[in-house]
TrEMBL record:
Top-level taxon: Eukaryota
Gene Ontology CC annotations of this record: cell periphery
Keywords per UniProt: Disulfide bond, Leucine-rich repeat, Repeat, Signal
Signal peptide per UniProt: 1-30
Protein name: Ig-like domain-containing protein
SMART domains hit by this protein: LRR_TYP, LRRCT
The Ig-like domain, residue ranges: 269-329
Length: 329
């Protein structure tokens, strides 16, 4: 009986060794010579970081799920470059610090299963929106550390499943209204360390699923256009504490003060007057003065040094465009 058990154990051990040798041989055969291939976190990884590569490595297995090409000199990603190598099962792709400045619109064709893409700290000057339809299931996108100065309207509209978006340290000075349209599942958005002074109303994806938003280290102009952002910072404070509280840079009297601590975010009155009015002698004249101010501005009219009477006293408190008919006293 003992002899039978011992023989069975040896056969099992031998079979296991043969299977391991077979897998190792297979992995080596399907691994680029300048890379390391291994199982990690339940996925098949090909690690080619820090290899001074000028192009994508050949020879990786089609089953590769994670490809790390960080710290290389790729410069550009031509059309269908991953599909041409048979890498159609990629789930995570790391391309940070690889001197990438040009990405073809069809560079990622075939990567329908991609859920994480790291393009951080490259030389990309525009959000690569034209590439997004190729991997619309993406959940995490890192673009931080690129010289991206403007985010255009609808830049991420093809990434409906995106939950994490990093745009820190991008030299951003402008975000167009509608830039984040379509990101209904977004949970984390990083905008810290940029050159933002303001963001148009209804542009930041506030509310919904958003749990974290970093805004510190920007030269914020604290006026009425930050009211929605301030409200979110106040309401979300317990659930989404800031790494560092964003503070005002202007006006000077508010410099250094936390945005959420400002009592009233005001805007100076903006006035638009008619350039030319034609009227007959003796007729009444309607003078239109468009004023926008927060808080509401009180409007008075003067003619030849005299205060004018207003036909409608309600027209004196204005927070949007209005007009009044004035008569000299």
């Amino acid at each position: 009986m003992c002899s039978s058990v011992r023989a069975w154990w040896w056969r099992g051990a031998l079979l296991g060794t043969m299977m391991l040798l077979s897998w190792t041989s297979s992995a080596v055969e399907g691994c680029p010579s300048m890379c390391t291939c291994k199982w990690k976190s339940g996925k098949e990884w090909v690690e080619c970081a820090n290899r001074d590569l000028k192009g994508l490595p050949q020879g990786a297995r089609e089953e590769t799920q994670v490809l790390d090409l960080s710290n290389n000199h790729l410069v550009s990603l031509p059309p269908e470059c991953f599909h041409a190598l048979g890498l159609i099962n990629l789930q995570r792709l790391y391309l940070s610090r690889s001197h990438i400045s040009l990405i073809a619109a069809r560079a990622f064709v075939g990567l329908v299963g991609l859920v994480e893409l790291d393009l951080s700290e490259n030389l990309i000057e525009e959000v690569p929106s034209e590439t997004f339809p190729s991997y619309s299931n993406l959940m995490k996108l890192l673009l931080n550390g690129n010289p991206i100065r403007v985010i255009r309207r609808g830049a991420f509209q093809h990434l409906a499943h995106l939950t994490n978006l990093e745009l820190s340290l991008c030299q951003l000075s402008s975000i167009e209204q509608g830039a984040f349209d379509g990101l209904h599942l977004l949970e984390w958005l990083r905008l810290d360390g940029n050159r933002l002074t303001r963001v148009p109303d209804h542009t930041l994806p506030l509310g919904g699923s958003l749990r974290g938003l970093t805004l510190h280290n920007n030269p914020w102009l604290c006026d009425c256009r930050l009211q929605a952002t301030q409200a979110w910072l106040k309401e979300s404070a317990p659930a989404a504490p800031q790494e560092s509280e964003p503070v005002c840079d202007a006006p000077s009297k508010l410099r250094g003060k936390q945005i959420k601590a400002v009592n009233e975010l005001a805007c100076l009155p903006q006035i638009q007057l008619q350039d030319r009015i034609e009227a007959y002698d003796g007729d009444n004249v309607t003078l239109k003065c468009d004023v926008y101010a927060v808080p509401a501005a009180k409007l008075t009219w003067w003619f030849n040094g005299e205060l004018c009477e207003l036909q409608n006293e309600n027209d004196t408190l204005l927070s949007s465009a209005s007009s009044a008919t004035a008569f000299p006293r």
